[in-house]
Amino acid sequence: MKVFITGGAGFVGVNVADYHLRLGDDVVVFDNLSRDGTAWNVDWLRERHRDRVSLVHGDIRDFGTLRDAIPRGADRVYHMAAQVAVTTSVRDPREDFEINALGTFNVLEAVRLAAPEAVVLYASTNKVYGGMESVAVVEEETRYRYRELSEGVPEGQPLDFHSPYGCSKGSGDQYVRDYARIYGLRTVVMRQSCIYGIRQMGAEDQGWMAYFCIAVRLGWPITIYGNGKQVRDVLWIEDLIAAYDAAADRIDVSTGEIFNIGGGPTNTVSVWREFGPMLERRAGSELTVTYADWRPGDQPVYVSDIRKAERVLGWRPNVSVEEGVDRLWQWVDANPTLFAPSPSLKS
User: Fold this and answer.
1) Number of domains composing the chain
2) pTM, whole model, 2 decimals?
């Protein structure tokens, strides 16, 4: 296959690229290399796949470069490039909009003009549902839970974009869906929960599972925003790639559809009150953290209802939280020199 990946040097993108390169597919990685770790990820791909890796150093805000980079007759386009943090979107909403909303529009237009038969897989987010203040939540000793949504949040949950990030990603989400209806593009929206795995250079405001592992391993200070009982369903990166494959393989029924993709009710963990003890067991010591105010749009609990993906795509997660955290911890422990110093530790 011919595969084009925006943000192909980021965490999800580089794992998708490696997956397709191992299958023998032709892969073009499109990335502006602005995020920490992306240059390392490109080097890693080149070490594994040599000159079979094609890199276009470009930005999705540059429509001309993007259009020219997409291979004619591309089979799959993965749109992974994004501004990924709520906190960054609050500080600079214009850049957030230009990357996530305008950038996604540019990707769709480039596909429409250059590769209209391609399957387009868009990495959306659960943040399109907002804070979900109308959904009853119960506080327990180590976590929050939904009072009634025992299977998690379904795709029919009303959209309520909260924060500039929620608005920009939500705009892209709806554009991707509508380009299937209006222009006949073969697009699929994946509203992803917390994805984690190897090659994730986690930061304090995004990629929290990897960031906490890195911080504990390197002795960085950790700040918990809120009380640490916030619950997320978490999904190992290889399970996410399997969901992409399932959607592409069943594009006859997945075109124009939206899927909530996460670990689901059986793969949940609270941000610190449960994840912290998991890290303490692996580090072999008690951990100390600092607490601060909640951040904008931070849901007390978010769990994906993944039954639509199971029913339509025949997909479900395979890697448990314990197994995934073991894999992540072992990778971080084996690669401490990959990670830049904590911002709070820089002189």
Assistant:
1) 1
2) 0.95
